[in-house]
Design goal:
single chain, 11 strands, 30% helix, Ribosomal Protein S5, domain 2, alpha/beta, 3-stranded parallel sheet, 4-stranded mixed sheet, 318 residues
């Protein structure tokens, strides 16, 4: 019977449950990773094999089939490395977990050739998806633990390398789940700029305030240097405070793009100002591995299109 290890993938802006199924049987020594994985997923075989050899484990010289279920959804990234290597070790009976229920845990993380766990993008939406599916225990790299702990009610177990995880599973070593106090979603960070810096322009200020209060679009027209960009950059400082739902939505988008610098919550409304030469994909997202564009990154905040007439006609069609 195949070993099943739980993991999470990213589809668009949300995570979804993936069952990493590993089966080893006699046959020509080769490894097949099926389930519509991209190049990074296929290359997991090389990373896992080298890692096991470095850690003095044996990479089975048999037929190995790894299925990423559901198999009809395209998968990308290196998120499944940890689940794959744990599945191979369990299926080949090289590790023997004691009092460890595999079905309760989600495994996330990329592995290095030396067995270290490396940071991955999109941890927050993955943990949110795990919680929605009824899971409460997550195993992931130490570098991602702060981001994962943002979601309440989850037990985050963070490790630096594969050996630590194996000891945790086999020796039942007590490891307290990581919990770090997060900044309240009701507390806004300090702005480096403020709307009070705007002097004059009395005719436009009331329209700016109305647009900020009602979440409206508006167009500013005026001579260069009259203060249009200055006013636009200061609009987030007068927008209504973000709700908890908006904070998690915005933080999830930036997590997928790898733009969370301190792995904390984004409690201020974002301000995005793309250049007028930006392509359609840069604005709306997409590409081979679809990623959010400037429109998504400005969600719950401000999208400022400076020099609007200079944008291409394709952009106007959006």
């Amino acid at each position: 019977m195949a070993i099943v290890v739980n993991s999470i993938g990213i589809l668009g802006l949300e995570g979804y449950l993936i069952n990493v199924e590993v089966s080893i049987y006699n046959g020509l020594a080769m490894t097949s990773i099926v389930g519509l994985g991209d190049g990074a997923v296929k290359e997991a075989k090389e990373r896992v094999e080298t890692c096991l050899n470095k850690l003095d484990y044996i990479y089975p010289k048999k037929k190995i089939v790894i299925n990423l279920s559901p198999s009809d959804i395209k998968k990308s990234g290196s998120y499944f490395d940890l689940a794959i290597i744990i599945g191979i070790l369990l299926e080949s009976e090289q590790i023997y977990p004691q009092n460890f229920n595999m079905g309760e845990y989600i495994f996330l993380g990329e592995i290095s050739l030396n067995g270290e766990l490396k940071s991955i993008h999109g941890v927050l939406p993955m943990v949110i998806a795990a919680k929605k599916k009824g899971f409460t225990k997550i195993i992931l790299p130490s570098s991602c633990r702060r981001e994962g702990s943002v979601v309440g009610g989850m037990e985050i177990y963070s490790f630096d390398n594969i050996n630590q995880i194996i000891d945790f599973m086999e020796k039942n070593i007590f490891i307290k789940s990581f919990i770090e106090p997060q900044s309240s979603t009701n507390e806004m960070q300090e702005f480096k700029i403020d709307f009070k810096d705007v002097y004059g322009n009395r005719d436009i200020i009331e329209y700016v305030a109305a647009a900020a209060a009602g979440n409206h679009n508006f167009l500013m027209v005026g001579a260069p240097g009259c203060g249009k960009s200055m006013i636009a950059k200061r609009m987030p400082t007068i927008l209504p405070q973000m709700t908890e739902e908006e904070v998690l939505e915005t933080t999830s988008i930036y997590s997928i793009c790898g733009l969370l610098k301190d792995s904390g919550l984004i409690t201020n409304r974002p301000f995005r100002s793309p250049h007028y030469n930006a392509s359609s994909n840069a604005l709306i997202g997409g590409g081979m591995n679809a990623m959010p564009g400037e429109i998504s990154l400005s969600h719950n905040g401000i999208l400022f299109l400076d020099e609007l007439p200079q944008f291409s006609r394709n952009t106007w069609k959006l």
